[in-house]
Write a structure and sequence with these properties.
This protein is of the alpha/beta class and 372 residues long. It folds into 2 domains: 189 residues, Rossmann fold; 156 residues, Glycogen Phosphorylase B (Rossmann fold, 3-Layer(aba) Sandwich). The protein has 13 helices and 13 strands. Strands 3-2-1-4-5-6-7 form a 7-stranded parallel beta sheet, sandwiched between helices. A 3-stranded parallel beta sheet has the order 8-9-10, with helices on both faces. Strands 11-12-13 form a 3-stranded parallel beta sheet, with helices on both faces. Helix 6 packs across helix 11 and helix 9 packs across helix 12. The radius of gyration is 21 Å and the shape is globular.
Length: 372
Amino acid sequence: MKICLDGRFWGPTHTGLGIYTRELVYELARIDSRNEYFLLLRREMMSEVNLPANFHKVEAEAVAYSLKEQWLLPYLLYKLRPDLVHFPSINVPLFYLGRYVVTIHDLIKHESRGRATTTRQPLVYWLKYLVYRFLFRWVLFFSGKIIVPSESVKAELFRRYRLNPGKIRVTYEAPVIRPEDHGDLGNLVLPDNFAIYTGNAYPHKNLENLIIAWKEVYRASGVKLIFSSARSVFTRRFTQLIKEHNAGEYLLFLGYLSEAQLVAAYRRARIYVFPSFIEGFGIPGLDAMNSGLPVVCSDIPVLREVYGEAAYYFNPGDRQDISGKVIRVLRDVDLQKKLAARGRERVKRYSWQKMARQTLEIYEDSVGLRSG
């Protein structure tokens, strides 16, 4: 079978999507020597990605969701003539009519929308949003299979679009940080007593409520909060929020950290805090659990599904509940130990290799190589 995989989001700088793409490709390379793969990559990644002989790198220098990708990708794909294409995001070119599967990581843009979620002028934003909703429906209709990272996303897709449930497959993702990983702070200097949040600064991450709630946490415990994210206009907004709420005393923004620095930071933190209103899965919390770190997070269905009893939950819309639950965990050493132990057990359920094997089965189903 000849499989093409869009790898233009490769790497941790693209957060969850980039990590998903990277881990899927590396695990497929470990378990599958029979099929032939063609990996579309941006120019900057061509020399950095090393794969076995049945994987071929193809340069595809087109920014996601651009006009260029609408003509360049169909040109490359029709030239390669794969049996199947896997798009790990919804940026499927309209003019490609071959067989493909798509991964839908979440429906965040369905819920989190409006001027606060964009840097565009209102007219431009709403035009792009309408195009997004059209493309989303188009992709759902024409894809052979739809891969999602959780039952929560599957249920939401079915609720909104009434798809055939058999078309949607759940493949759980997994942590990136392993217990045996060795961190390296490099030149990074951290406080002696801190909690950590890692992830982007989009509005659905609920960081303003976290900033305001943390003032009470700091007064009660002296624990600072460090925040790590790749720089973007939303992190600039976040730093502005820190100034507006005079939070510089207890909140430290570190920008983008390498994976080695993240490992080191997780190992030194007191807790990991995850205040999102909406998620598709929740890799950072699993990374924290694999580092022996108690997780305190939003009480939303997907995090309940993924973390189970291994996390301590708060109402993300209630600042007093956020601060109260965080303070409770910081003060209760026995609870910290219980959460850390549960986390180490919980995380054993998730494996990138298992995810890759399930994905390969979906590929085979999609081209009729499997029955049932």
